[in-house]
Amino acid sequence: MPSTERGTLAGRSVSRVGYGAMQLERLHDDRAAAVALLRRAVELGVGHVDTAQFYGDGFVNGVIRDALRPGDDVVLATKVGADPDSDPGAPLPLRLAQRPEQLRASVEDNLRSLGLDRIPLVNLRRCDRLPGLVAEGDQLVPLDDQLAVLTALRDEGKIGAIGLSAVTLDRLRQALPAGIACVQNAYSLVSREDEELLELCAAEDIAWVPFFPLGGAFPGVPKVTDEPAVQAVAQALGRTPEQVGLAWLLHHAPNVHLIPGTASAAHLEANLAVAGLALDDEALAALDAVPSRPMEVSLG
Asked: Is residue 55 annotated as part of the catalytic site, yes or no?
């Protein structure tokens, strides 16, 4: 069985359980607490922090800038393809920014807000499939045009590695010559529609970083924790259903990296503990037998 503790991301060895920083926005009124929480994550061994400029319209990136220190061994990953949007009528506080010039501007915005000269990993959030916003009009941009500007930014030394998010199998195959380090797609025990894509990533040494790893983030997304098999394994191990759902992902494929988010120090420690949670053959068989169901969610 592969190690559930460490893996490779953007050419670096990191703990396979990282931290998704979006939830730091919940601490907007207590910046010191947000900084302390991220420092705690690093102290506990987190080596992968995932962010975006549109998280709190730069607030989260500012917290990361204040919290991380030059000696911290952290792969910092951000996303481009969307920018902050303060329109109160928008379904999400972001707007699509898929055009090449917008991608370059977004990378520059992230560099400024993070206080960096180089971002270790930049994930391109494609918007041609659910769940999430779907591109239309001038936001329908060929992938090759987007990869061209990201490759140029990598050649310029402004980004270290390129990742993709919300992509199809065909799009990933198209992108492989550009050198892809990471794929972020919606995936969980109960939503395994992208199994073939995951297998291609494993074969190409591409990290698989699932979002919605426990499902249930929006109406129409099934919840891992509702599954009787998950609840039974959790009870037998004295763990929570959430921990079992995350641990299954680590056991399922050696290239899986997790980025669960939280604004709670106790929840942070519970999330990080899944790296050491062993699932025996019986437990894995019971979890593998849980049926996969399609996600039917649109955010706009």
From this structure: yes
